Amino acid sequence: MKIIVNAKPHEISASDLQSALRELGFAGSSVATALNGTFVARGQRAEVQLAEGDQLEVLAPMQGG
Amino acid sequence: MQLYGTEITSRLLLGTAQYPSPAVLTEAVKASGTEIITVSLRRETADGSGTAFWQDLQKTGCRILPNTAGCHSVQEAVTTARMARELFDTPWIKLEVIGHSDTLQPDVFGLVEAARMLSSEGFQVFPYTTDDLVVGEKLLEAGCEVLMPWGAPIGSGQGLRNPDALRAMRAHFPDVPLVVDAGIGRPSDAAQAMELGMDAVLLNTAVAKAGDPAGMARAMALAVEAGRAGFTADPMERRDMAVPSTPVLGMAEFA
Fold first, then answer.
1. Nearest CA in chain A to B87
2. How far is the C-alpha of B250 from the C-alpha of B26, rounded, in Å?
3. Which runs of consecutive H residues, i.e. helices, occur in B61-152?
4. What is the DSSP letter of A7?
5. Residue B137 has pLDDT above 90, yes or no
6. First vs last Cα of chain B: how many Å apart?
7. Is the dihedral of CA A10, A14, A17, A20 positive or negative?
8. d(Cα A6, Cα A30) in Å, to the nearest integer?
9. Model-level pTM greater than 0.90?
10. Within an 8 Å CB–CB cutoff, is residue B58 touching chain A?
């Protein structure tokens, strides 16, 4: 299925958020996630099912003022 | 100084953006003596640069104050705050809801609304606000225990545009920690803020964009300390006219 990850289209085979993050290479990263504009806590990722066209944001710590 | 019940010794808070390199950032953090550094959240890249940055930050031993920089709506700011709480494992959030992309002026209506939502979720909100007293009151009502008025627009380095308004804030909120956030350009600006009775200053660009960031970080730390000492030592009143400091009594007459 095709989903949008950080504004770029990705074809993934995983159906839940946790597996998708692993598939996308974020397994070892310090990231927080939001799906279609709503925060998804780390502990909920395995239960959240993805759908075609979902917009996923994967954010990491970055320099800031 | 206590911020949400946490005792903080250094009255200088430092941003982590725009340094020439991670090594220079680390040096500047050390030279500033800060205990609190601000960070943001951005899209993670394929090379894991955010994760690497996070590992560097943890080595500084500083408390992390994540921001919601760049958020223009309540929804964006609240979602970013929730993500920050999980990522940085802290209830602290520097709440920015930006009203204008050119002036980066806070949208104080959105700010109050977002502050209320986040406070009710257990966040400890550090709102980036203007020097407006009524907005300050609304933010306190919304659950904020710290106010962070701007000195001048973000990144402008103009110093304190309206010192009288900050003085009024100090008088109006005698027991609320006030942190001047944004606009500080030089050590004298930081000292001035502290002399006005502000509890701390938060700055970034002034240090990061200096020719010698670590040197400027040290200068800012000294200025903050000097300004604070000056405030607590109760400065003299200004006078319109000269008053001789050397005694006139006992002057010799040579005419």
1. A32
2. 59
3. 74-88, 108-120, 133-141
4. T
5. yes
6. 59
7. negative
8. 15
9. yes
10. no
Classify residue A29 by its DSSP letter: S
Q: Say whether B79 and A37 touch across the interface (CB within 8 A).
A: yes
Strands A32-35 and A55-63: antiparallel
CA distances to B56, B94, B182, B253 from B28, rounded to whole Å, are: 13, 21, 18, 58
Q: Is the pLDDT of residue A28 over 90?
A: no
Res B180: pLDDT = 98
Contact A64 B39 (CB under 8 A): yes
pLDDT digits (tens, 9 = 90+) for B55-92: 888 899 999 999 999 999 999 999 999 999 999 999 99
The CA–CA distances, whole Å, from B133 to B108, B137, B138, B184, B198 equal 12, 6, 9, 21, 15
Tell the residue number behind the tokens 């001047």, with chain if given: B180
Assigned token pair, B173: 């909120």
Chain B (185-224) residues lying within 8 Å, Cβ to Cβ, of chain A: 204-205
Strands A8-11, A38-40: pairing is: unpaired
User: How close, in Å, is residue A25 to chain B by CA atoms?
Assistant: 8
B87–A33: do the CB atoms touch at under 8 Å? no
pLDDT digits (tens, 9 = 90+) for B95-117: 999 999 888 999 999 999 999 99
